[in-house]
Amino acid sequence: MNIIKSVFLVFAFFFLDAPMWAQNPVDQNFSDNITGQHEFPETYSEVSNPIPTPVHLWQNKRQNVIGWGNTDTRYKKEEPARVGDISNKVEMTGWKGERVSAQFVVSAVKSPLELSFEVSDLVHNSNKKWRIEQRTISTGFVRYVMTDELNKDKKGACGHRNAKNFDSTLVADPIDHLTKSLLIPKNSTCPGWVKIWIPQNAFLGSYTGTLKVLDGKKVIKKLRIEINVKDRKIPTPQKWRFHLDLWQNPYAAARYYQTELWSKAHFEAMEKDIQHYANAGGKSITASIMNKPWNGQTYDPFQSMVTWKRKINGQWEFGFTAFDKWVEFIIKMGVDKQINCYSMVPWRLSFEYFDEASNSMKIVETEPGEKEYEEMWGAMLTSFAAHLKEKGWFHKTYISMDERPMEVMQETIKVIKAADANFKISFAGGNHPELYEEIDDYCLSMEESFPQEVKEERKNNSKISTFYTSCAHAAPNSFTFSPPAESEWYGWYAASQGLDGYLRWAYASWVKEPLLDSRFTTWAAGDTYFVYPGGRTSIRFEKLLAGIQAYEKILILKEEFRNTNNQKALKELEEILHLFSNNNFDQTTASEVIEKAKLVINSF
Fold first, then answer.
1. Residue 593: its H or E element
2. How far, in Å, CA of 267 to CA of 263, rounded?
3. How many C-beta atoms lie closer than 10 Å to residue 201's C-beta?
4. Are 229 and 96 in contact (CB under 8 A)?
5. Which of 310, 561, 571, 603 matches a 20 to 30 Å C-alpha distance to 211?
6. pLDDT band at residue 43 under the 50/70/90 scheme
7. pLDDT tens, 74-131?
8. What is the reported pTM?
9. 89 Cβ contact partners less than 8 Å away, ≥ 6 residues apart
10. Three-class secondary structure of residue 601 per DSSP
């Protein structure tokens, strides 16, 4: 069944080789919140808190509450931190090369605070010349963003959303390193985040330092930092084995930063955002090789990085300029293991191209198994393979699909292999044993699993086996209202199941005003992005990083224990990993399980 539709367009636009403007979203309706601020702020004020301040919780407080909390808690803006839950000293343990984080909290009781903070070098307790310097320590205010909740049945968070039908609150999530001083109103709370990147060449032992909390120029509290550096080392992120695949969206960045697509300004704006992905050991580059592979499921739809043209003589011609610019940029940022190209089987089976004969854009609707589909994609893949080989990228490029039926995948694979038998294929979706041999990078939804012998065989054949979470999962998840430890749980779970890593469908597919409101009309709040504009990270992302580092440490320890035949330690490690085979958090939270596991890991 082939239906061709024409959409007339000025001929000259085609020769840009790919759309060169930031497209405004037009496919969905969004309820715009009036914030009274610039649309794309560098500095900003949080939106009003829909939750009234519980005055009775503040009335008996006589002084500001300031101290170290924990990284698994989202402290409420409208409530004072509990004195019994905070401390004047934080103690952390880490390996050389590891990043460890701590969260402190400030509750302004009697009057507003002009809050800022300063962190010192961390000095070795045995030799004052040995230091973990300030330059390896990053800090930021933990800011508040609007969030919502699960669906009313509490079973997930998929489906269209009207904000009026969901409870909305402010929640602590963005980590704002750009704002150096923040006015904290009376009877409100503001946390802060400290992340220490332990140098690879640090001396083992204990280091101490100080965090000064200031109101204006006045120091109102000194908090002690202690970190114990173990005589073990974690590799640099580019050498990590955890396969992290977070889908990037350059179209969201172009809209938010108000730059021309693929311009110098566009790439410069994205550097600070992509750097977090590279520093977390990101492995996959997300490339869209046709227009709207997911039919506009994000605020900023993915456009095609490849131009499709049918010439007057009926032959196909393809342009790869935008694709090349994007891939070269991400590789330069340090993400260079593989290029995932979406999608031969989009959510809507329609494919846009420029028709030279009519000087217009046209759309063909066809599907795997049809002759026109085979001819069109056969031509594209043949041209694409030749281009990739010329660039030296063919070996790392995967033709990628997600959540498509098995029969459709089988027909699609025939077309791919007919174009070039050596093309690699990635798929995120259902568990189909018939596809195990064909799929080089296979990602299952979390509730499904590969048989143990299949995982071993795939690993022996250098095939990748991972898992993903989505709006269908109530927990664990990474919504802005999810408990932070659930993002860390992913790495531990992958290690416990013998999987290679984790996939998430959106790294930075920002909503209209991501710094202010993380809600979206189709998925739960925060589902579409992990990081915030301006190179701001988040509690969720930092916890994800902690889980990835745990995964790397587990691999190192397992190899050591096997090589030294330390069966006792190996058994102890396997027993603690067994706790992560159960993802039911009704009785035991992710935080409780992870804290127990960390004690074991840090004992080796």
1. helix 590-603
2. 7
3. 8
4. yes
5. 603
6. confident
7. 999 999 999 999 999 999 999 999 999 999 999 999 899 999 999 999 999 999 999 9
8. 0.94
9. 68, 223, 224, 225, 226
10. helix
